[in-house]
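Technical note accompanying the year-one report. For the benefit of new consortium partners, we illustrate the data format agreed upon in the data management plan: each record pairs a sequence with a structure-token string. No post-processing was applied to the example shown here.
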Amino acid sequence: MIHRCRSALLLATSISLAGVVWTPPVSAIDFNGIKVTPSISYKGEYDDNVFRNQFNKRSDYAHIVTPGVTLEATPGKHEIKAGYTAEIIRYVNHTTNDADRHTASLLANLNFNRLAVRFSEDFRRTDDFPTTELTTRIKRNENTITSGFDYDFVQHWGIGFDFAWGNINNLREDFDFLDRNTYTYATNVYYRMTAKTRVFAEYNFVREIFAFDKSRDNNRHRGLVGVRGELTERLQMTGKLGYEHLEFHADTQGGGQDNFVTSIDANYRPVERLGIGLSLKRSVESSTFTGNPQFENFMTNLFITYALTPKVTLIPRGSFGVDLYRESATNIDLLEKRVDYNYGGGLGIRYELQKWIRLDGNYDFSRRDSNFNSNDYDDNRVSFTLTLSM
């Protein structure tokens, strides 16, 4: 009864907050050239498999309130953005899943004739599922800082350099062996095909250092080629593909590993009311599965937006992925390598009542099929969201 009262109170509070910000249409607040955009949303979600188990499934309903604010300044040719959101999640029955998630970001792009300088930071405190492998919620802090520059040194040619530091700090003691720092150093040479499109060749060196489990420490060397920008008026793409050589610091993990790696993000708008987005990534991820410090992950996602009317948009989507494990493990009475197939799909409908009021309804399905059958699961989620934003 107490939990239900608390959930009802949260819902009432969110509706009250919606009423507070339910104001006549106005532009974002402007403070001497700094644009401030506050927002708040309420999301109600039903999940028929909260713990993503194959057996003994548990369903629940969650109330999710998300206040946020973004700040933006564009002095001259420069761009500076900052944002913060809090995600307050309360379940009706399984209150151990209650969470307060926080996301903060900072982005700066500075342009000086031939020189472009960039900096960004993204911080998240979250308990969401960290990878496609894990169905356990792990409370953790994730922080990523990147910086770099591009310099056009002659006609269409230029050089660039980037540095990135990433930190993952798991707040559950039973997962602190995955705590790590990742350092990436990248240099590239590019050719500008047009003012907004470039092709490039890149080399980067990655050093991954774990706080406790030193047997996982590794170095990675990557050679990549890619394209970035507007290939046509209707097609934008950032794509990289290449080769990675990974070496563990410890002899216990065996010799080096060679991998094909790629990442593609593309957006295509064949007609005004239709948009198609595609993301594809192949990478190596940290694993908790027996005898496998890492697994190879391939994932692709397809998103479509179709405007039925100026105010109503359909958003179908789908995903497919494969997780491959290098080392054999015991599967019932056999020794074999684990392979997981991950499927997902959904349909959303968005209705913009006004520029500052939006309603979303969504259905999402996810499933994992593994040759290690105890890792199978399927999950269905239905949700609606009310968003208010200046």
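Partners are asked to follow this layout when depositing records. The chain has one helix and 19 strands.
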